[in-house]
Amino acid sequence: MTLDRMKRGQRCRILSIPSELIRAQALRFGIAEGEVVTCCEVIPAGPVVISKNRQEIAIGRGLARQIEVEGSF
């Protein structure tokens, strides 16, 4: 499953971030492989809002579509 497929309130673990460029972009947001995040909001045709350590981060659909995640926690 990819990050853009998460539903509101769902928790998941980041499994893989495919390319160096995308990994660098995700690290700027404080997101790395192995991190557990919670989906706060999925805005139709817009970003996916996730939270990690009480910080909310809006991830664009293009980036979210390329981040592999593992089910609910």
From TrEMBL:
Gene3D superfamilies in the record: 2.30.30.90
Domain of life, source organism: Bacteria
The entry's keywords: Iron
GO molecular function: transition metal ion binding
Domain Ferrous iron transporter FeoA-like as annotated: residue spans: 1-71
InterPro entries linked to this entry: Fe-transptr_FeoA-like (IPR007167), FeoA_core_dom (IPR038157), Transcriptional_repressor_C (IPR008988)
One Pfam family recorded for the sequence: FeoA
Name by which UniProt lists this protein: Ferrous iron transport protein A
Organism of derivation: Desulfofundulus salinus
Phylogenetic lineage: Bacteria, Bacillati, Bacillota, Clostridia, Eubacteriales
